[in-house]
Design brief:
Number of domains: 1
Structural class: mainly alpha
Helix content: over 70%
Radius of gyration: 20 Å
Order of helices and strands: HHHHHH
Strand content: under 5%
Shape: globular
Distance between the termini: 44 Å
């Protein structure tokens, strides 16, 4: 999003107030859709991999079986999705403000907006993830997570509606998913390799 918004700044689209507002709202809505969908799939993947790893440890006698049920699944999904939504909202607002300010100061946002987005995003997301994972763990056996999950699905629907009605980003709703899922696959694969290597160490 930082690169896309920087391009809009460089071609002068942000100089018009109405266009600027439409671009900001559209990009933030699109970012929420991408963040929530990808984090949902990441949460499912993490849950499945966690069950597989736990099964292997149980068979080897190094761990006991956990619940692995409905409430645990909702805990993982809600922690992942809420963290992604909040961090995307914060990072997205920061990036759009940064690009707009750089345009007004006649600076090229490509020189710092994208690198900042890359470096700040992971740190912010991990910090927020730790906080929300602890919060949802405290109410794991209640239906709080169920209500939060239903609310998150509704948020996806609202942001899809906003994106579809925005002429500047509506085409992007169906594009750009492959790199996101490839990045998700690479990250998950890297984690498995590291975990496998660490398990072999004395």
């Amino acid at each position: 999003m930082a690169a896309r918004f920087s391009t809009s700044a460089n071609i002068g689209e942000l100089d018009i107030r109405l266009t600027r507002r439409t671009l900001v709202l559209g990009n933030l809505a699109l970012l929420q859709v991408q963040a929530l969908v990808v984090s949902f799939i990441a949460g499912l993947l993490a849950f499945v991999l966690g069950l597989a790893t736990r099964t292997g440890l149980v068979k080897s006698g190094t761990a006991t079986a956990g619940s692995g049920g409905y409430f645990e699944l909702l805990l993982v999904l809600c922690a992942a999705m809420v963290s992604a939504a909040v961090s995307s909202a914060i990072a997205g607002a920061f990036m759009t403000s940064l690009v707009i300010m750089s345009r007004r100061l006649k600076l090229d946002p490509d020189n710092f907006a994208t690198p900042l987005a890359s470096s700040i995003g992971d740190l912010l997301t991990l910090t927020i993830l730790g906080f929300f994972a602890s919060a949802f763990f405290n109410v794991e056996l209640s239906f709080v997570s169920t209500g939060v999950f239903i609310g998150l699905v509704a948020v996806i629907g609202v942001n899809v509606f906003i994106t579809v009605r925005n002429a500047y980003v509506q085409e992007l709703l169906l594009a750009g998913w492959i790199p996101l899922f490839l990045a998700l696959g690479i990250s998950s694969g890297t984690g498995l390799v590291l975990e496998s290597y660490g398990a072999r160490q004395p």
